[in-house]
Design brief:
The complex is a heterodimer of chains A (271) and B (268). Chain A is an all-alpha fold and 271 residues long. Chain A is built from 10 helices and no strands. Chain B has 268 residues and is α/β, with parallel strands linked by helices. In chain B, α3 packs across α4 and α3 packs parallel to α5.
């Protein structure tokens, strides 16, 4: 098995594990999410695989529901950030110089703007919810994606093959569809996979600060925050969501790595 | 009236500095004109101007008229993109210098030729496939090349594929901008012979741009010498080679002779 295969397979397995758990949580969880019958801070046991939290809720159940929230956030933010960023980046890539300079300045400001502050503004405007968190992360991501897209588009447009294609009468929209998108896609896909991992981490931070999905939606970030005060008594409450985050984010990064190498036709030939 | 009539063409930078100034020439249908000059003399800009493809910021003034037989005459300078798109490929098309970048690295060669044929001749399905394969055959490439990516074939094969994509559009005018410069000498001769045959077979006009007088003299009938954006000399190849009038022409001729002499000496 070649190297890019290995990272792609390992990454897909890790992300797939999280997806499987998330899907399972839709059909079945060990206990209802708000069930407190286990008693406060119950230790790890057959009845409670990861023990319970200080309110007596089953941690394994929370972890499963948290997988759903993490994936929702990652995919939602990538969808918003990818769509907005791609559109803005292509526009800037084609734009006349003054418009391009203006867009680049706006992007730099958005990128420099702290994501948490942006999230707080969105939460202040829309109220704390998973949707607000996804929107805030998507907006922050779109600037990064747009800046990358802009430079990639410019690089492709400067290539001879674009001129060669226009020489046979290709219109600009077709140039984008036939040449620009296929040529920027490999780099962009890698970046989006990385951004997915970053969005998952950022959502955990937001939830940790109480800016994410409100209870009883148990995000991994909120689990970390709630377990913080009882870490010496019940370490599983802190370790489990931490490991879950690690699995998903490392998986996303492996997928990014595998995509990068799989997309390179030169690497593909030599393998 | 000629197929291509360039009248007092000037190409200037946004700052107003002229890169091509007051250039006039004509190319009749089926004719072959070589444009020669040192790098920076405005040869390639002239070629791009004829196709309405000048880089952003550069502005053309004057007149470039394309008049294909059986078609209406069209003015290129100042024409909107929609009109230019109708001319490109169908009336005039081009082959460029660098075969390694003239093809999209992520698109199979057959698809790139096919895309040009589809746009300019409106073919679809099996007819498109047949036209693509016959275009490859016309330039002496095996049909298996259609499935290859550009990095899988040699530089000479890439340039042939680029020529196939251009010629398959059945243009009245083919602009060849230093098409052999990036190739090694034996491949150069083959590609030159190929262009010669294709242009003759189809009655295409050829605008051949080069810095190499020896190459131009083998393929063109008439030659136009550019220096710093202006035409300094023009005439039949025989006249210009035997009786050059301008110092630039003499310098180009001299360098060609020196190269030839060096080759003679090194021959066993």
């Amino acid at each position: 098995m070649t190297r890019h295969r290995r990272s792609l397979v390992a990454g897909t397995a890790l992300v797939g594990l999280t997806c499987a758990v998330a899907l399972l949580s839709l059909l079945w969880t060990p206990y209802p999410v708000s069930d407190t019958s286990g008693g406060r801070l119950a230790p790890v046991s057959a009845a409670h695989l990861l023990g319970t939290d200080r309110l007596g809720r089953d941690l394994a159940t929370q972890l499963m529901v948290g997988a759903r929230i993490a994936l929702q956030t990652g995919l939602g933010a990538v969808a918003i950030g990818g769509a907005l960023g791609l559109a803005a980046g292509i526009a800037a890539g084609f734009a006349q110089r003054w418009l391009d300079d203006g867009l680049a300045a706006v992007l730099d400001i958005v990128i420099a703007f702290p994501t948490l502050l942006l999230a707080m503004l969105v939460v202040a405007a829309r109220g704390a919810s998973l949707g607000s968190a996804i929107l805030a992360l998507g907006l922050a991501m779109s600037a990064v994606v747009a800046r990358l897209t802009r430079i990639l588009v410019k690089r492709v447009l400067a290539q001879d093959f674009v001129t060669a294609s226009r020489v046979s009468g290709t219109s600009w929209p077709r140039v984008v569809a036939e040449h620009v998108l296929p040529n920027i896609w490999p780099t962009l896909a890698v970046n989006l996979a990385l951004q997915f991992g970053l969005a998952v981490l950022a959502e955990a931070s937001l939830s940790y600060l109480g800016l994410g999905a409100p209870p009883p939606n148990q995000s991994w970030g909120r689990m970390l925050q709630e377990a913080q005060s009882t870490v010496l008594v019940a370490p599983a409450g802190l370790v489990a969501p931490g490991l879950a985050l690690l699995v998903l984010v490392v998986g996303a990064n492996f997928v990014a790595d595998g995509l990068r190498e799989a997309a390179d036709p030169l690497a593909r030939r030599s393998s | 009236m000629s197929l291509l009539t360039v009248d007092r063409l000037t190409v200037a930078t946004p700052g107003g500095r002229p890169l091509v100034s007051d250039l006039s020439f004509e190319l009749p249908a089926g004719g072959r004109l070589g444009v020669i000059g040192e790098s920076g003399s405005g040869k390639s800009l002239t070629a791009l101007a004829v196709l309405g493809l000048l880089p952003d910021g550069l502005r053309a003034s004057g007149s470039i008229r394309l008049h294909p037989s059986g078609g209406a005459p069209a003015q290129v300078v100042g024409a909107p993109e929609r009109e230019l798109r109708r001319l490109r490929g169908r009336v005039a098309t081009a082959v460029f210098q660098e075969p390694s970048t003239a093809l999209d690295p992520l698109m199979r060669i057959g698809n790139q030729i096919g895309a040009a044929v589809r746009r300019t001749r409106g073919l679809r399905g099996t007819a498109l496939r047949a036209a693509t394969l016959s275009a490859l055959a016309d330039v002496g490439l095996d049909r298996r090349i259609a499935r290859a990516y550009p990095h899988e074939v040699s530089g000479g094969q890439r340039q042939r594929a680029a020529i196939a994509a251009a010629v398959a559009c059945r243009p009245a005018l083919l602009i060849a901008d230093e098409p052999t410069t990036a190739l090694d000498v034996t491949v150069q001769a083959e590609v030159l012979a190929l262009l010669d045959r294709l242009v003759a077979d189809r009655g295409m006009a050829l605008l051949f741009i080069s810095h190499d007088l020896a190459v131009v003299s083998r393929i063109a009938e008439r030659v136009l010498v550019l220096a710093q954006g202006s035409a300094v000399e023009s005439g039949t190849v025989a006249d210009v080679v035997t009786a050059p009038r301008h110092p630039v022409t003499r310098a180009l001729l001299e360098s060609a002779r020196q190269l030839d002499a060096a080759l003679e000496v090194s021959r066993p």
